[in-house]
Structures are given as C-alpha cells and as structure tokens.
Amino acid sequence: MTEISGPMKVPFYDAKPYDRPFFVKHGEGQGIEYLFHEFRLSADTAASAGNCPAVCAFVNDTLDHACLERLAASGVRLVALRCAGFNQVDLKAAAALGIRVVRVPAYSPHAVAEHAVALLLTLNRKIHRAYNRVREHNFSLNGLVGFDLHGRTAGLIGTGKIGKLTAQILKGFGMEVLVSDVYPDESWAIEQGVTYTPIEELLRRSDVVSLHTPLTPETHYLINARTLGMMKENAYLVNTSRGGLIDTGALIEALKQRRLGGVALDVYEVEEGVFFEDLSHDVLQDDDLARLLGFPNVLVTSHQGFLTEEALSEIARVTTENLARLVRGEELLAGTEVTPTN
Ligand code: NAI
C-alpha cells in the first residue's frame, strides 16, 4: 500500500458511548483520529467519508455495491470492520473496486461464550421474571421452576472458538455435551469429553441447543420448521451467533404450539434500525420481534455478547493497528483481511 503522510482521519460509523473511549485511547499515539458518527454507513451516508482513505464500520452498516462504489469514488481504500462477522459487506464489489476489507476475527470468544451461558441460566431459572417480580414485592415462586443443568444434555452447533469455550463451560456444570461441525476437531473432543454427533441426532437428544456457526448460505435458516420439529419438547434454544440462522416465523409458530421450553436470543434476523438503539419512546414496527418479546419464555438481548471491557479493548487495538499499518504503508495484520473467497 502507498504511504499516507500526517495523522489519518477515519470516519467511524454507528458510534456509541461505550466504544468511543477504547478507540480514542488506541488511536492516540498511532496517528489515527476517529471521526465519530452516530449514523450508520450506507449508500445514503457514504458521502460523509470525504477524502478519507479508510472507514471504520460495524455489524449493522450496509456496505453493499452502491455504498462501496461511493466510498471508492471518494478515495476509500480500506474498510476496517470492528467486528468478526462480515456478511454486511459485498466482498466481490469491494475487491472489484480495489477496497480491502479487514475485520477483528477473534477479540474475546470468552465474552460471547459467557453471554450464551448467562442467557441459558437466566432462561432456565427464570431470573428475568424473578427480577421483575421482587421489585414489585411479589415474592411468589409460582411458575419459576427450572431444572438442574447437571446431568442434562447440551447440543452445540459449531465448534469454533466460541462453541468450544461454551462446551467447556457447560462440561463444568456436569452436562453431557454433544457437538456438530462441518470441520470436527476430534482431538479437542476427546480431550474435553464431548461427542461429535450428526446434527439431527444432536437436535433430538439435547435439552439445550446453542448455535455457534457463522451465517453463510449453508447455515441460513439452519433452525426451521423441520429442525425445530426434531427438537425435544421443552428444550431451550440459545442463539448468540447470527439472527439469520433461525427462521423467525417458524420459531414463533413452535413457541405458540408450546413446542419449546424457551428461547434466548442475542441476535435477530432483522436487527438493523432496532438493535443498539433506544426505541423506548417509539412504536416498534417489527411485529415478529414484538411477538417474540411477548412470550414469557423468550429472552432477548440486543447483540451484547461482545460487550466486555476485554473484547472492546481488543477490537479497538486490532482495528487501530491495521489503520496505523495503512498509514505506515505496511502489510495488514495477518489473518484479518477478508476476500470474496472467505
Ligand atoms: P469460528 O469461525 O471460530 O467458528 C465457527 C465454526 O462454525 C467453525 O468451526 C466452522 O467449521 C463451523 N461451521 C461453519 N459452517 C457450519 C455448518 N454448516 N454446520 C456446522 N458448523 C459449521 O467463529 P467463532 O469466533 O466461534 O464465532 C461464531 C459466531 O459467533 C460468529 O460467526 C458470529 O456470527 C458470532 N458472534 C457473535 C457475537 C455477539 O456479540 N453475539 C460476537 C462475535 C461473534
């Protein structure tokens, strides 16, 4: 890459109060000045990139062909995603326009695995309901019965960084852990005492199913009417990966038919414009999300699995390091670049 002289200004989209301090800290001394924008990046807002050679984007920005074309026209050569997922970027268009794309492949898999388990414990022991009850001085226990995780079976789909850590935590509870992955890691499974199991058998046998695969054409609607029908009655479903892994309509139908014990979601099919926003004074337009929020046995968090100090600091460090390397004309950090072949 050609060298850029002087401090580099980097437009930063969908900025929130909780990520700014980490980026300001890492930007200082690295020659990077972040320009924080609260609005999201899309074709409509791409003109705000001005003459900056790089932009910093997040999960709900829309880097489609039109947006990338406008970024390229204003001189952008690098998109730095401050997240692991990259399904929001048209990678083919980026490559054709000469824009390189980097991400933060792993910041704290512990943060997400721990959140998945926090959701499971909350759902099972009805903490969300108990919390509200006692605040109203209702100390009744009716309807709050959970089950011991010890001795039950968990089925984890995807044994990458987050799935493996989740499996290890659940083993600590004394659960039997079944796992499924297109690329099984047998030596890890033997070491941890977990069992690779065909997905259909995993769904049939598990009391808890937790999703840990990326969103790809193969995993889109992995959980649908057919696969929901295979799950144990009263099983819990936990999704901290991507909303598109679940067919929301089929999920609502299964919940209405009382086919599931409960569902915990940190991600949702249509997060854009809703997740990360304060809509408490607005009217929620998404009827499916409103329906989900109405079930007593559904728990939703707003894509906060990554939200720990350790993860935010690591995201800021890796992103800023890549931008500094662009400034210095050096190679980007190994393993962070995404191309159409990813
Ligand atoms: P990873 O890349 O380490 O692991 C993903 C695993 O899924 C791999 O082992 C892969 O072989 C497997 N896989 C891919 N397609 C599959 C299929 N069709 N069936 C079964 N297994 C399949 O990813 P990592 O770091 O464990 O993250 C998992 C997902 O978590 C990410 O893709 C992302 O969507 C999500 N995530 C969510 C966050 C949150 O804040 N809620 C934060 C970070 C990641």
Short description:
The protein has 342 residues and is α/β, with parallel strands linked by helices. Helix content is 35%, strand content 15%. The relative contact order is 0.15.
Structure report:
The protein is α/β, with parallel strands linked by helices and 342 residues long. Helices cover 35% and strands 15% of the residues. The protein contains 12 helices and 13 strands. Helix 6 links the parallel strand 6 (153-157) and strand 7 (176-180). The radius of gyration is 21 Å and the shape is globular. It starts with 7 loop residues before the first strand and ends with a strand. 40% of the residues are buried. The mean pLDDT is 95. 1,4-dihydronicotinamide adenine dinucleotide binds at residues 84-85, 106, 109, 112, 157-163, 180-183, 212-216, 218-219, 240-242, 266-267, 303, 305-306.
Q: What is Rg?
A: 21 Å
Level of helix content? 25-40%
Low-confidence stretches: none
Overall body shape: globular
Protein structure class? alpha/beta
Biggest sheet statistics: 7 strands, parallel
What is the topology?
Blueprint: E1 8-12, H1 20-27, E2 32-36, E3 54-57, H2 65-73, E4 78-81, H3 91-96, E5 100-102, H4 109-125, H5 127-135, E6 153-157, H6 161-172, E7 176-180, H7 186-192, E8 195-196, H8 199-205, E9 208-211, H9 225-230, E10 236-239, H10 248-256, E11 262-265, H11 287-294, E12 298-300, H12 309-328, E13 337-338
Parallel strand pairs: 1-2, 3-4, 4-5, 6-7, 6-9, 7-8, 9-10, 10-11, 11-12
Antiparallel strand pairs: 5-13
Helix pairs in contact: 1-12, 4-6
Summary keywords:
binds 1,4-dihydronicotinamide adenine dinucleotide, single chain, 342 residues, 4-stranded mixed sheet, alpha/beta
